[in-house]
Amino acid sequence: MAENSEIKMQKALASLKDTFNAIRTGRASAAIFDKVRVDCYGQKSPLNQVATIAIPEARSIVIQPFDKSLIGEIEKAIQTADLGLNPSNDGKVIRISFPPLTADRRKELVKQAKADAENYRTQIRNIRRDGNDDLKKQQKAGELTEDDLKSETDKLQKLTDKYIAEIQKLYDAKEKEILEG
């Protein structure tokens, strides 16, 4: 039973990592483009499948399309992705520079990261609650003894504690990254 809950908790943790990757810090990162989709030959494709993304220095990114005719579409996709970035293209590549974050913007980003972390902690607790409810149903149906119920409930609590601690670690690292910039 706990295995099922652990899989759900792992997925929640992976989702939080993706969410944190999308939060822009003062440093250039290719991960912020993970959700950018480019209109390519009539279908939406991930940016990393239509171009190479290079980070020549800490505060800039160079995007080189595999097909030069897509440069306008890539630029448009980045602008509409609401990342707060201003791409400029020279006909061959798109350059994006990351301006340093202001103190207020850093505080906003930390607040956003904290809210995201709390949402995922709630998800983990909800998974624990659902798991406990399932265990109680199994006990009522005679599939689990009282001792098994106690043992499985304890396992579920340990899993919950483990994943809540992982979320805290991720949050602490993201907060440090944002504040250092």
What does this structure look like?
- With 181 residues, the protein is of the alpha+beta class.
- Helices cover 57% and strands 15% of the residues.
- It has four helices and six strands; from the N terminus they run αββββαββαα.
- The strands form two sheets. A four-stranded antiparallel β-sheet has the order 3-4-6-5, covered by helices on one side. Strands 1-2 form a two-stranded antiparallel ribbon.
- α1 packs antiparallel against α3 (103-140), α1 (2-22) packs parallel to α4 (146-180) and α3 packs antiparallel against α4 (146-180).
- 24% of the residues are buried.
- The model has no long low-confidence stretch (mean pLDDT 87).
Tally of helical segments: 4
How much beta, percentage-wise? 5-15%
Radius of gyration: 22 Å
Instruction: Please provide the count of β strands.
Output: 6
